[in-house]
Amino acid sequence: MSHSPSDQQEAGEHIAESAADSTSNHGSGPVQGHHYPAVSAFDNAHVHLGDRHSHYYAATNSHQANGTASSIADKLFFPEIFQRYETIEERYGDTLDWIFDPPEDEQPPCDSFVDWLRGGDSIYWVSGKPGSGKSTLMKYLVDKVQNGNFFGNDPPVVLCCWFWEAGQPVQHNVSGCLRSILWQLLQDPVCQPVVSKALSSLDIDKHELTEPRLRAALRSALYAVQNMSTTIVMFLDGLDECGLEGGNLLKIARALNEEFTCLKICISSRPEQVYKDAFLSNPKLLLQDLNKGDIDEYITQEFLSDPTVEKLLQGKHVNTLDDLRWSLQDKAEGVFLWVRLAVNSLLRGISHRDSLETLQERLRDLPSDLDNLYTVMLARAGSDTKYYESQAALYFELIIHKEMTLDQFAVAINESFRERCFDGQLDWDDSVLREELGGEDLAAWINVRTSGLLEVKDNHVPAFVVTSKPKDFLHMLQQRRILFEGGRYFRHALQVMR
């Protein structure tokens, strides 16, 4: 699917107009004293280059019927429904398999997720420290439950909501959660007819989507599904990201769990006291107590097996290798993200020709908490050259202000390109745009200048959402998103430093 030059120019002019309206008084960035007009270039730009819709998930779903069901789904839908899902890391290698297949000779200190899935009637609670990998685990559970055979020949309907404090209000409030769940029910080919009928009787498509009306709609939809003897498994990730709304959502979840025998709910959050008290008698797991083997696998594969590390360790006593492994394990304290960042820092040291002694000293000096670790890494990231420091500051400020896709970012940092968009002076030939916007080197450019603290990743689309995958360069950029390594934890560290 390719867009005509006129369509591309129209979309480009829209973004250029936003940039033209921006001022240089937005505020200083991580490097004190810098002011960036480009930061506000996208405050009002909801149109991607070459794509007049605000989000590709709005593409027609093959499961969605015409008529009333379609109008209801359109009203429930919002572009950010799966935005948080896209940013969540996939599991590393074969990690997390223990949740479905624990070793026979070792009982993990948690309640069996499989036993709960097949017979439990309480909410299952996944908890863990910040950065321990809760969202990655939840994403893995969604995939396995959706594609496994835990319920024999009667596959469940899997629903999920990914709360995100850094996103729009609809991404971390009750109404957004209810809209997302109802929209997903309308996408399921089995549930769609009965859910559509239930919602039509409430005239949900003709009224304002207030929270009470959405709650009534969800109860009607669940009653309709329950009469079909279909099991629904609902995953709610990051309840702690909902602020004051978290308590309300928990009450709603408990009420639904008690009312509908067809519904099983799995919730994740940090182990804050309010949730410890709420889930005291529920089946649960504490992730940092269970992922030691996963962390060890990552250290072995990504650090100790790296050719440069193997060369550095040649001829050294085996205790040296074990010391590095256990030092990383010990300082991580079950936080998978910390290990990833620490390994990146150590590999960076090796690329600078650090000796083994310097490497060990670097590891000893790494803070064991995420915020301080980011501070150290940011200081090191800015030490390459003054030129990189200035560019890295701009990139960080852009992304902390608004996470964006790669096409948006390319325009934000290219003032000349924006001006020519506005003046209608651009050649929209695909090969010309590749050269103008940095081509395939753009992701590497970002990585080098931020020392890997900003990452470019492909958007991950849930299996039940149908999208077109065009091949032209602009759409290739649209399918990639720039993220903080470590998500909201890095964002918080940057905000503290500003």
- Measured by DSSP, the beta-strand proportion falls in 5-15%
Gyration radius over CA: 24 Å
Strand order of the largest sheet: 2-3-4-1-5
Work out the helix count: 23
Report helical residue fraction.
40-55%
Note down, in words, how this protein is organized:
The protein is α/β, with parallel strands linked by helices and 498 residues long. The chain has two domains: 1-55 and 291-498, no CATH class; 96-289, 3-Layer(aba) Sandwich (Rossmann fold). 50% of the residues lie in helices and 7% in strands. The protein is built from 23 helices and seven strands. The chain has helices at 5-21, 68-76, 83-87, 113-119, 134-147, 174-187, 192-200, 211-226, 245-259, 273-278, 292-304, 307-313, 318-332, 336-351, 356-365, 370-381, 386-401, 406-412, 415-423, 430-436, 442-449, 473-478, 488-497, and strands at residues 124-127, 157-162, 232-237, 263-269, 284-286, 454-458, 480-484. The strands form two sheets. A five-stranded parallel beta sheet has the order 2-3-4-1-5, with helices on both faces. Strands 6-7 form a two-stranded antiparallel ribbon. Helix 11 runs parallel beside helix 14 (336-351). It is globular.
